[in-house]
Amino acid sequence: MTPALAHLADALSAVLPPRALVTDPELIAPWLVDWRRRYHGRADLLIEPESTAQVQMVVRAAAQAGVPLVPQGGNSSMVGGATPPADASAAILSLRRLNRMRALDADAGLAVAEAGVILADLHAAALAAGRRFPLTLGARGSATVGGLVSTNAGGTQVLRFGTMRGLVAGVEAVLPDGSLHDGLSPLKKDNRGYDLNQLLIGAEGTLGIVTAAVLRLVPAVAVRAVAWVALASPDEALALLRRFQAASEAVESFELLPRESLAAVLAYLPDARAPIATDAAWHVLVEVTADHPADDPAGLVERILATALDDALIADATIAASETQADAFWRMRESISDAERATGPAAQHDISVPVDAMPRFMVEAAAACDARFPGTRASGFGHLGDGNVHFHVRAPRGSDPADWYAHQVPRVSAFVHDLVVAAGGSISAEHGIGQMKRAELERLSSPARMGALRAIKRALDPQLLFNPGKLVSFDPPVAG
Amino acid sequence: MTPALAHLADALSAVLPPRALVTDPELIAPWLVDWRRRYHGRADLLIEPESTAQVQMVVRAAAQAGVPLVPQGGNSSMVGGATPPADASAAILSLRRLNRMRALDADAGLAVAEAGVILADLHAAALAAGRRFPLTLGARGSATVGGLVSTNAGGTQVLRFGTMRGLVAGVEAVLPDGSLHDGLSPLKKDNRGYDLNQLLIGAEGTLGIVTAAVLRLVPAVAVRAVAWVALASPDEALALLRRFQAASEAVESFELLPRESLAAVLAYLPDARAPIATDAAWHVLVEVTADHPADDPAGLVERILATALDDALIADATIAASETQADAFWRMRESISDAERATGPAAQHDISVPVDAMPRFMVEAAAACDARFPGTRASGFGHLGDGNVHFHVRAPRGSDPADWYAHQVPRVSAFVHDLVVAAGGSISAEHGIGQMKRAELERLSSPARMGALRAIKRALDPQLLFNPGKLVSFDPPVAG
């Protein structure tokens, strides 16, 4: 343990309960590596405060001791955003014990959850009150409210209610000087200067430690219609999406996948079968919900699809006849990542472009990749309605995985990111920057953007102690 | 003209067309006073660039010369936010000539408007394309896109689609160093660090000069139902609002007014008559729209109101039988401010609290004011659904207006603002801070908030040249 860390641990032992200070390497070990096992850090101190006031004590003491703090929730970052630095200079600040639901008001449609509340528990609490927290994602059993807010998380149900930014009505956070930003009052109109809540959402813990949030709850789903559609191209898919959106505000998901993704899933899931017999180059999974049991989303979906068939906009379609079949459709969509991983190494990119530009991007970027890197096969799948796809470039058959990841992926990713920027897009749609995309953010951002990011970071965290090495970098590097 | 201003004018005359530089005092005069005529500034130079590139030239030259810039659109700020300082040190930077509609895509529901586009023209352009820009307010004939973005403007149609923050999909702005923040790409998911678009929205021109914005367009209104409801108290009004919101996502407005506001309007408008014969302490104007001509919002409204009558939640209600009658209802609502002004001097407050807390606040704050300042009469009216009312405290009968405004209003306003803060509310719901509320913001904000606001301002505008004296203040004051 560095002298600064020892000083911090000593100072905190006087004010925190013993169980809040963890130094046992075995207990710390699980928190030193990200869940994809790409980033390995070191830390000799894990701090687990149980209240906002304790977080303030920790932040003040760390500022005094000059110790960097790495905030952690469920440790499910996709970009190494919660992994401590390798030099063992930092302490991990876990928010997992700060996990009370402070309030839940079904009538107002608001819940106040502390940072450590797990997403699945928030879902359950909302449902128990007859409401719904609509955002969901694969890591819902471990991802926490603090991390979801700090990464402006997305997922498969963003189309109707938005990402976390659209669902957060208030933020409580401890700032780097130990002061408390109390932005929990859920005001629908508030023009008191720069919106600090918005600044903290998506800041990846580099400007403040989110300790609680007010979250919007929406009506529970009374009935839903889930359909599988076969069609010729992403252009037709976008035209179909526009028809759905013109007819209903309750389009919850509109997921697009190419023939090869479906083939991978069918090979991967032992008991899966194609929802539609028609062979088609592209497939869409669409979900429309209704809040009232008397509503008929299936009827609406059927009418739209029937007209689209008449107009030859689509090749074929089927509506899930039961909740079981709807779940089976969704299971296929949610298995794509695992199924594709099983087919061999790939370079994966979480990217977005304007929704209207996505059909062209998907086709042209795939062709450009195939031409530039002979033997690779590129394709995107995912959230067409959000302009966000996961764009995968599969290694040539017989590639050596180690060589592929070490030498080819950086070149492939730079090429893909250049195409994204040329299309006016973002190299991080929903996963954030973390450690993984810091250099690419630097390479591809305007001087105006990078200058502003750095200036804001230095202004609010002049000691650069909050989540060092994530999101923004400084040159020369700052010692911990 | 100060030497610094003369230097700036000279430098710009080499790069801008002559008409972009105005020094004629008669042409500058209209822009030196706010429309309420409360703030009077001085300026010997008015700059009217016609392109974003020209704005960048102006900002760079002003930074070089050390000249503060006061951005102006329609000059319709309610808080003196666009009035130059009195010491004649600053130049006015008018964005009115930067007024092209760069693009309008009805299918995507997006328009790209330059800062100088007037709100009414944006409304017209959207309607001509079969769409709607939903935000509207009294000053729509003069307010511009740049000002609307920079003040996060609200209005009477916020309930469904939100304030400007909910309607802005992208921002282009010139930063204080002259660099361009190009945030125009309308990405639905973008997690590349701190959200600079969100930071610029509502920053009142103190961090960047907004030059263009991408704005969301929504479906045009096919049919609407407008109803007038009489009821006993704000509690009943909130319960009624919850019933409407549970039944429909298309509740566009829910405006609450007390008996005395209605009486003032009836006395003020020569041909107006009460929509409802029933005398009641409180009244609600509710509007529900539908995007499809086949929909029946009037039927929905009628069912909800009939049930509410059966339940004795409301005393009486009527649905406008025609568009003419609907317009008449709205005219009464929109005349309240003028009508109340005609009844005598008052202290006016644009405040918000959480929606659920508003009924109690309206009743208790009015009683507290009446008790604290004998002879005054306090009441609030406005956007109950947004938790935002305009809270007026009328001077005692026979008060001398000059004495009232000079000596009583500051005490009354401080008292009202203290009540707002105690209720977890905001002293500026939709008008911003500007000059008018700067001292109150300072007095009533936590050290965390004020510290963060100042740190961000200094970080992005170290010379403190953008809209000096607005929103954040510095001590000691910075010379222009």
UniProtKB/TrEMBL annotation, chains A, B:
Keyword tRNA processing on entry: no
Domain FAD-binding PCMH-type: 39-220
Domain of life: Bacteria
InterPro entries referenced in this protein's UniProt entry, alphabetically: FAD-bd_oxidored_4_C, FAD-bd_PCMH, FAD-bd_PCMH-like_sf, FAD-bd_PCMH_sub1, FAD-bd_PCMH_sub2, FAD-linked_Oxase-like_C, FAD-oxidored/transferase_4, Oxid_FAD_bind_N
Spans traversing the lipid bilayer: none
Entry keyword set: FAD, Flavoprotein
Family: Belongs to the FAD-binding oxidoreductase/transferase type 4 family.
Protein name (database record): FAD-binding oxidoreductase
